[in-house]
Amino acid sequence: MKPLRVVFMGTPAFSVGIMKAILESEHKLVGVVTVADKPAGRGQLMHESAVKVAAKEVDLPILQPVSLKDEHFLSELKALNADVFVVVAFRMLPTAVWQMPEKGTFNLHASLLPDYRGAAPINWTIINGDTKTGLSTFFIDEQIDTGSVIKQVELSISENENAGSLHDRMIPEGGKLVVETLNAIANGTATTIPQSEMKESQNRPAPKLFKENTRIDWNKSIEDIHQLICGLSPYPAAWSTFTNPKDEQKNVKFFVTRKHQGTKNDLHSIWSENKSIFIQLKNGVLEVVEWQMEGKKRMKTAEWLVGNSVSGWKIG
Fold this sequence. Notes:
By secondary structure, this protein is an alpha/beta fold. It is built from eight helices and 18 strands. Strands 5-2-1-6-7-9-10 form a seven-stranded mixed β-sheet.
């Protein structure tokens, strides 16, 4: 096998793990493309992406275009003389970019395509209560997440698993899958299948997460609410509003909950018992284990109840 020259494109911590797997492979990582630095935080200090930080540690060439169609960027990218581009959690690429390398540009997506195309596949697979998910590599085309699939690997989802733990488990598996895909391309053995020919898929979307679709609807079943909380934990977190006895409305984020059968109180009532907080739903009781009250840090409800009470509180 002749090692490939690879340019890697990515931004968040998830991408870093995949980039490191390529660095540890036989292939040669010749450059990295990531987002431009931007001000963040109260002090508006310039923030570097996780991929840039990791690339600097190993002295890789780093390109940070504001526009992916910029002629100077395209010239620099072409000068890296890569055989293939690998994309993980980046941006939609213009044709001039993804068609540049001789052996193509492929993406690693955190789902079993064609299910969960979109920005938040890890979250939505848990929100929807799936028991299995996976990772896919596919050659990029003109649309988002629609290209022909090269390789896939399945992963099980355990009961009560949250998005954070699934995210972390996917990183080493994603690294292996990307290296296997590079090896197949290098050996000339890579085969593809159009997503339109793939069976056993419901083609469910994975749209971006906004304030509107992360808010808890307390009229839903305990299963749906619990899965929403798991699927959004630790970030961005499912949320709701509570009203205290002073008629003050507080935003509350939820991180860890447990399901209990039966009815112990009036619908939508909230109470504390045995150092836990409980909410009565239409088909069960939801125990809140960890939450974050507006203006406070994330904590276990047992800790919050020391000096606080939910007596007289109302949902919404």
